[in-house]
Amino acid sequence: MLYRLDAAARDVARLLGAEARDDPWAGGHVAPGQFAPVITAGREAIAGPRPQGSAPRRMIPRLWGVPPPPSVHDAPRHGILSVRNLDSPFWIGNLRNSEFRCLVPATSFMDWGRPSPTDGKRRQSWFSCADQPVFAMAAVWKDSEIPSFALLACEANAALKAEGRETMPVILPPDSAAWALWLNGGWDRAKGLVVPYSSSLMEMRQLG
Q1: With contact defined as beta carbons under 8 Å apart, do 168 and 197 qualify?
Q2: Is 196 helix (H, G, I), strand (E, B) or coil?
Q3: Assigned domain for 51 exists
Q4: 87 within some domain
Q5: How many CB atoms are closer than 10 A to CB 67?
Q6: Entry pTM
Q7: Please, what is the Cα angle at 147 between 75 and 189, to 5 degrees?
Q8: Residue 70 covered by a domain
Q9: Which CATH number do you get for residue 36?
Q10: 182: how many CB neighbours lie within 10 A of its CB?
Q11: What is the chain's percent helix, strand, coil content, to nearest 5?
Q12: How many CB atoms lie under 10 A from the CB of residue 60?
């Protein structure tokens, strides 16, 4: 999977209610193992009880791909890109503690479609949201060896299943309440956001 964020950092931060500070992002594609803008609840350097009120959201660059635990010997070259098992001991602490959840802004994402019946080649299928030009994907961050993040995955919707995909990134609704719930809410409510995005609200284009 790849994704694109064709918008400048300050415009994205303004949309999602965050502080961009000096984030240099000007727009482009993101591949595994690359840095990209991530929006956090602003508590990365804070330990201890949660203070009254919410800290300002911050947009900061993080690496896509979390280093695996030492026990994993066949980990992907670019680290773990997505969270598929919500009950995994490796992820559960990040999911239950909201300060470790984050938003990853995007304008489209790519997965490989089914082989073409004419030449047998697989096409790049790029998906975007008709109802929100810039959308937020649910993610979590970790600071082990490097400041990194992983996207949450859920069951694919009908549009992606038609292209032979079993999972898709978790896309949040264009609703400030949903963004706040993912960044600040309890896990008992936030996990309700881990659902497929409606196929009727998605657009697809294929590239050979």
Answers
A1: yes
A2: coil
A3: no
A4: yes
A5: 16
A6: 0.92
A7: 85
A8: yes
A9: 3.90.1680.10
A10: 27
A11: 20, 35, 45
A12: 21
